[in-house]
Amino acid sequence: MALDRDGNASPASFPQPWRPGATAAAPRDERALRKEVVVRAPVAEVWNAWTTSTGIQSFFAPEAEIDARPEGAFHLHFNPYGQPGLKGADDMRFLSLQKERLVSFTWNAPPHLPEARTQRTVVIVRLEPLNDKETRVRLTHTGWGDGGEWDKAYDYFDNAWGRVLANLQKRYTDGPIDWKPWLESLKAQKK
What we know:
This protein is an alpha+beta fold. It is built from five helices and eight strands, in the order βααβββββαββαα. It has one domain (31-174): START domain (Alpha-D-Glucose-1,6-Bisphosphate, Chain A, domain 4).
């Protein structure tokens, strides 16, 4: 606190009320995962991979319900045989779409992290055509809490998003993923 020459507190040292245009101390940087790959496919094809059920099933999950519009369904089932709510990215929603440029959607933690799973984070996928045969894909995953299961979910997706984007690349070099062996292993686990 600043004092004037008489030892009185200076009005300038009193806390000031917030007023329009005033700036507050900047918060610490938002924790975010960032991944990037170049895919050997035109931007229109990569867009369809992210915004159609057939596209999602070609690289991301064996079953998907996709309604590519704001607030539309973005439901990805990694375990189609699981209980409702435990199939994967159940009940996720598209947030925004800019054709062949950006798609964003809500996301949740995997079932083995039930406390974090009840929350939602945000994934933003940006597409940039490099030429008529290649597309840069930039993925940002944000909206994380701190500590406990949040940290575990962050670590999980730090690894998982790299695999998802590698599968997207592979989809255009080796063809769509064959989910049959995965689905057979899930069926065997249920027995």
